[in-house]
Design a protein that fits this description.
alpha+beta; 4-stranded mixed β-sheet; (2Fe-2S) ferredoxin domain-containing protein; Thioredoxin-like_sf
């Protein structure tokens, strides 16, 4: 992470998730901008996270919290609940 980053989000870029990457990335970018977090949260691409049947997927660092089956509603919750309050969303996590 760079010195200003609080979180880093790794978006799965595997075969399954990669086909949905544009939508997921755009949803994260919009939610981060709405929450005024674009300067402190980095979006990165990752290799396949091995959860293809539950994609699209992302990992939030620090803490290595894995979220699967991402959609706009889940992404907004992740940004506004996990990133703003440092509270991972239990029901959206994938262990």
């Amino acid at each position: 992470m760079n010195q200003q980053s609080t979180y880093r989000i790794y978006l799965c870029h595997g075969l399954h998730c990669g086909s949905q990457l544009g939508h997921v990335q755009q949803a994260f970018e919009q939610a981060l901008a709405a929450a005024n977090l674009t300067e402190t949260v980095e979006l990165r691409l990752s290799n396949c996270l091995g959860r293809c049947e539950r994609g699209p997927n992302a990992i939030i660092q620090p803490g290595r919290v894995v979220y699967c089956q991402l959609n706009s509603t889940a992404i907004n919750r992740i940004v506004h609940e996990h990133l703003l309050t440092n509270t991972p969303i239990v029901e959206l996590r994938d262990e």
